[in-house]
Amino acid sequence: MRSVYIAGYGQTPVGEQWQRSLRHLAHDAIMPAMQDAGIERADALYVGNMLSGELVGQEHLGALVADFVGLRGIEAIKVEAACGSGAAALRMGYIAVAGGIHDVVIVAGVEKMTDTVSKDTTAALAMAADQEYEAAEGVSFVALNAMLMRRYMHVYDVPHSAFGYFAVNAHQNAVGNPNAMFRRAISLDTYLKAPMICEPINLMDSSPICDGAAAVVLMSEHLVRSMNGGRRPVRIAGSAAGTDSLAIHDRRDPLWLEAAWISSQKAYQQAGITPADVDLFELHDAFTIMAALSLEASGFAERGQGVRLAQEGEITIEGRVPVATMGGLKARGHPVGATGVYQIVEAAQQVQGLAGPNQVHDVDIALVQNIGGSGATIVSHILIGE
Amino acid sequence: MTVARSWRTRRQRYSLVGERCEYCHNAIFPPRDVCPHCAEPAQKEFALSGKGTIFSFTTVFDPPAGFERYAPYPVALVQLDEGPMVTAQLTDVVPEEISIGMPVEMVTRRLNEQGDEGLILYSYKFRPTLEPQAAIV
Ligand SMILES: [Zn+2]
Q1: What secondary structure does DSSP assign to A355-371, as a single string?
Q2: Catalytic residue among A27, A102, A171, A334
Q3: Is pLDDT at B69 greater than 60 in this prediction?
Q4: How far apart are CA A350 and CA A326, in angstroms?
Q5: Residue A70 has pLDDT above 70, yes or no
Q6: Which residue in the list A83, A160, A171, A198 is annotated as catalytic?
Q7: Sheet with B17-20, side-by-side order of all strands
Q8: pLDDT exceeds 80 at position A252
Q9: Cβ atoms of A364 and A340 closer than 8 Å
Q10: Beta bridge partners of A240
């Protein structure tokens, strides 16, 4: 296997981008990424996207985006794994370069969610769950997460207020990210007073519906050495994906993210590290409960203790396990199929010391984890600065 | 949901017909032909009793398309007595009375209607288990 490097990246601001279409958003991320990497051509393009068919009426994004950004002719394929589509696309790019099939691959994540009305977006997001036995009963994706959160609070005797530290941290970090959707800090009091949307999930437990696109250029070692322009090379030292049942009711233990455990353990092994070596963890805080469960299943906290890490200040930029360092899904925003690529871009910025006011001190190793559905697909990547 | 899809799953929705694995003897719902516990073939039909307890629950206020006119409605993960868990709506109960561990039983209720001339879908819902009635003397 060959070493794979991130040679460049680009991203659009996250938000309600009514003036830009799906294909324009992809363009706005891919062109800066290509420029950043100093390339005019690539061997392949993998596009992470979840809902283009349902919300934009457009499938076949690989060829569409390739043509739109001036790459007509190259191999180009859409990769879908619900909200984990971005990282799934990255993993396809990684496999292609590591396996010696391609030397230069562009991975883009793109999502357009704000052209449709709320009930249609809600129904589309529920497609990440089991359509015949979860969504068919009228259970929304938020409701599934709400039931996980309530169970967690019941089993571990955790008050709702304890989850607030995840939201406070995410919003605090988004202030320093020019591409974040919500660039304003909130207090714990704001969290406690937020309107309930699906008990016990309130507005501040939940990530927003939004548009956005992010892209990275992957290169094999021999090319990136000569092209990196003085910036610190970022190597993808671990890449792994795990699965679990689509439906929460089919899991062996609904409060344990088995796919996070599987993929993070594989990635640690590939990189030759343990959780103690990780300097920051870009986790998938689509809901605060998911942040807690991810910390536990990825080896940072005992079961039922993920929330305590947040309460004790360990997840802030100065803490032991910084998470959501650029705002996370909660405050940077969660354009579902693009999120996994945003996470990689942000982690690469941190490893290169380019995270501005949000820079975590002395970052060498970042864990990046993207979740599809309520935990059925979980992809973990480890970035190491050289 | 399309007519064919609704028809295919009618025995699951009307009478909780699942499977019993002949190798590890676990009950399985919904049926899936491969046992999720031991990965052996599982095709022996088995109808669940419909009795269970609430594992967790919430109320849907912001429903997906097709369920707007029913909101708000309570939903739950129900741990069935035979082992499998099922995701379903609750019925015949006010949200304030729902709690984790509460015994519930399956009933057949209307799930939704697809317009004036479309399908009327029925499915399992769960209600608080009725107390057994005293015998009339
Ligand atoms: Zn079995």
Answers
A1: -GGGPPTT--EEEEEEE
A2: A334
A3: yes
A4: 9
A5: yes
A6: A83
A7: B27-28, B17-20, B45-47
A8: yes
A9: no
A10: A380
* Angle at alpha carbon of residue A125, lines to A252 and B32, rounded to 5°: 40
CA distances from A187 to A152, A161, A176 (A): 23, 12, 16
Average pLDDT, chain A: 97
C-alpha angle A255-A259-A260 in degrees, rounded to nearest 5: 80
Q: How far is CA A102 from the centre of its chain?
A: 24
Whether A138 sits inside 8 A of B36 (CB atoms) is no
Q: Are A331 and A185 in contact (CB under 8 A)?
A: no
**Is residue B135 predicted with pLDDT exceeding 80?**
no
* Averaged pLDDT of chain B: 93
Sign of CA dihedral A181, A187, A191, A193: negative
A355 phi-psi bin (left φ>0, alpha ψ -120 to 50, beta other): alpha
What is the per-residue pLDDT for A229? 67
**Which residue reads 């601001």 in tokens?**
A13
Q: Residue A343 CA to chain centroid, in angstroms? A: 5
Q: For the whole prediction, is pTM greater than 0.95? A: yes
pLDDT tens readout for residues A194-224: 999 999 999 999 999 999 999 999 999 988 8
For helices A288-297 and A141-156, the axis angle rounded to 10 degrees is 60
Would the ipTM clear 0.85, i.e. be above it?
yes
pLDDT tens digit string along A27-60?
999 999 999 999 999 999 999 999 999 999 999 9
**Residue ranges in B44-97 assigned as alpha helix (H):** none
CB A53 within 8 A of CB A127: no
pLDDT in tens, A148-182: 999 999 999 999 999 999 999 999 999 999 999 99
Segment holding A105, helix H or strand E:
strand A104-111
**A147–B58: do the CB atoms touch at under 8 Å?**
yes
Q: What is the Cα–Cα distance from A368 to A379, expressed in whole angstroms?
A: 8
CA distances from B78 to A254, A302, B5 (A): 12, 27, 23
Taking 90 as the threshold, does the pLDDT of residue B116 lie above it?
no
Contacts A133 to B, Cβ<8 Å: 30, 86-87
CA distance A150 to A139: 15
Whether A133 sits inside 8 A of B30 (CB atoms) is yes
Q: Provide the pLDDT for residue A227.
A: 60
Beta bridge partners, B19, equal B28, B45
* Burial letters B21-55, b for 16+ CB under 10 A, else e: beeeebbbbbbeeebeeeeeebeeebebebebbbb
Continuous H helices in A99-163: 118-125, 141-156
